[in-house]
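I hope you will forgive my troubling you with a question about protein structure. The matter concerns a single protein, recorded as an amino acid sequence and a row of backbone structure tokens. Please examine both parts with care and let me know of anything in them that strikes you as inconsistent. Here, with my thanks, is the record as I have it:
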Amino acid sequence: MTPNTNSHICPICESADGSEFYQDGHRDYFRCQTCDLVFVHSAQFLSAEDEKARYDLHRNSPDDQGYRRFLSRVFIPIQRLLAPGSCGLDFGSGPGPTLSRMFEEAGHSMAIYDHFYARNPSVLEKQYDFITATEVMEHLHNPKKELDRLWACLKPGARLGIMTKLVLDREAFARWHYKNDPTHVCFFSRSTFEWLAARWQAELTFAGKDVILFYKKNQEL
């Protein structure tokens, strides 16, 4: 999880053309001119202890119907594409795994992984019919490593479902509450996901304003 200490190196495409994008008095944000990722200066990341303390405040639960409705934004578009009895992984499941429960209730088998709450590296050595990552991309200190690892965990013909809010422009970013969470350190745009799809030779679908679906083709070109 050790980030690159050069603030101008993009943590997704590793290009060195990150330019100053925004400052808010607390953190410095850079925007990559290659893949369009907005990212925080690595020196301004929280410590692991402080980061976990923030997550410990979350009260998400599989018994919370409101939380289930929130997760249904990614659950529904993926579920309708899956074969019965598919095998999935929920990456970044958090302290109260819920999306995995929803897929299990729909007849699928699930594994979970979370850096703080379910750190079982063995599940990242297997392959799956689908992987979900809801509200986790923005927390990753080394998103290239984590995304490439998830992509390698997908079988040919599998799907990766991501939910994260998308960057628009600098004016909107200045007003954006999403950037104010100190655990949020990288912010994706549509262009960033399009760059990833081209790199992976994947099919890409935006299934809502904050839901992104990748399809791993059966035969890579």
The chain has one domain: 18-215.
